[in-house]
Amino acid sequence: MAEGTKNTGRGKQKTVVVPEMGHLQPQARELEEAVLGALMLEKDAYSIVSEILKPECFYEKKHEMIYGAVVDLALNQRPIDMLTVTEQLKRRGELEAVGGPFYISQLTSKIASTAHIEYHSRIIAQKYLARELISFTAQIQGKAFDETQDVEDLMQEAEGKLFEISQRNVKKDVTQINPVIKDALVMLQKAASQKEGLSGVRTGFDGLDKMTSGWQSSDLIIIAARPAMGKTAFVLSMAKNMAVNYNTPVALFSLEMSNVQLVNRLIVNVCEIPGDKIKRGNLESYEWEQLDFKIKELYDAPIFVDDTPSLSVFELRTKARRLVREHGIRCIIIDYLQLMNASGMGFGSREQEVSMISRSLKGLAKELDIPIIALSQLNRGVESRQGIEGKRPQLADLRESGAIEQDADMVCFIHRPEYYKITEDERGNSLIGMAEIIIAKHRNGATGDVRLRFKSDFAKFMNVEEDIPVREFSSTMNTIADPIPPIPPAGADFLTQGSSSEVPF
């Protein structure tokens, strides 16, 4: 912008702002020349700038081609100097386009020292990033004026492209080991100060906590199962344990259920009243008392729920950062991964999109330094296999992308043999009402199985030894009265009526 003056008609002048006709693209031609000259003079110069600059970072097209030739030579482990660069450009058919051998020799003659090559390279990279942002915002601005464009889709596209630009250009510096050792010792001392020796976020499931030492910070944990195995019931039971029992703030992103449905599931879980009764509101008098008494556990619990449908990974990043900053969230749960999207970015297939989502979730876990738990569906391979062992999920059953297995620090499967009408194991032990959490991959620990009890009527997972009968509440006193006859164990209906013990809702 430029300033000018305007006569107001009363002998006074007023300063006005006159818009300029245009802007030059951000560029640093002299620094580009200096860096290219230094690359051809200093033997180790390329190793300094290789992680900072790419050929497209150069504003001048001929400089981009020269740097491309330098990259070719480096990849083939050949020396980089004026003669080899000239020869490589000749092979690429670009020598005349850059100005011939004379221009190459000019670049080297202008350089007195290579001491500041890294600093100069970072300036060139910053100019490139500025040009990328200008181009991106111009495209978005043009589309915003187009009334046929859906604004929500445009926002998703803008967020996706901005994320892509930032990921391409953000690099993390190497860290000397001493401060890392200090951080590791702090974690060790923290674990030693706890009686159970847990260094991560406790789930409330004793066997699982013992095997994992709690969910660890920066880990991506995938919990996968076939439909009706109780994935949502498991994470809700876990979220309740974290928030109510241990006062650990937890965020739950539900892409499948509304907030009200989710809270209803929590009420069923905590109050231990059958889900069909909660839906119909058909409660006995003692159940109303039970509801009033036990629901108090959920009030003020540090549980934060979000039911945004078709949540994008970019929206998740924004919301997760705010939750950690404002509410001190220690764990994020996503129900479930395959319902997420990475809109705004182009993918050749759904598998590529899921790969992008899983990589982004792992990156977010590292950035926020908290565990992220993502539920995942399994493919139908489980259904086609026979026998007790055949029905156990395997890593190959993960749906849509092998990248999920690669990116995850831990992969757990939920397996309920009872669902497949397998009521006894090989030793004759009853499997009715039992569930197995199979730790199939554990990057930083052991794999194995953990047994839990599953109460299908209450959509609740619990430690095996916790199966205590529900007690009746007196309608006249706010105290627990004598227990009513014990509720039959989960799966009893299956034995007597032949129905499956699926999650009730």
Query: What Rg, in angstroms, do the CA atoms define?
Result: 31 Å
Write down the overall geometry.
elongated
Largest sheet, in brief, is: 9 strands, mixed
Number of helices: 19
Helix content: 40-55%
Distance between the termini: 63 Å
Q: Which structural class best describes the helix and strand composition? A: alpha/beta
Report the average pLDDT across residues. Answer: 78
Strand order of the largest sheet: 5-4-6-7-3-8-9-10-11
Beta-strand percentage? 5-15%
Low-confidence stretches: 8-12, 14-19, 468-505
Q: How would you portray this structure in words?
A:
It contains 19 helices and 13 strands. With 505 residues, the chain is α/β, with parallel strands linked by helices. Strand 10 and strand 11 form a beta hairpin.
Chain-wise SSE layout:
Blueprint: E1 2-7, E2 13-18, H1 29-41, H2 45-49, H3 61-75, H4 82-92, H5 100-109, H6 117-145, H7 151-169, H8 177-192, H9 206-212, E3 220-225, H10 231-245, E4 250-254, H11 259-271, H12 275-280, H13 285-294, E5 303-306, H14 313-327, E6 331-335, H15 350-368, E7 372-377, H16 381-384, H17 387-390, H18 403-407, E8 410-415, E9 434-442, E10 448-455, E11 460-462, E12 471-473, E13 480-483, H19 492-497
Parallel strand pairs: 3-7, 3-8, 4-5, 4-6, 6-7
Antiparallel strand pairs: 1-2, 8-9, 9-10, 10-11, 12-13
Which features would summarize this protein structure in a list?
about 500 residues, alpha/beta, nine-stranded mixed β-sheet, two-stranded antiparallel sheet, about 45% helix, elongated
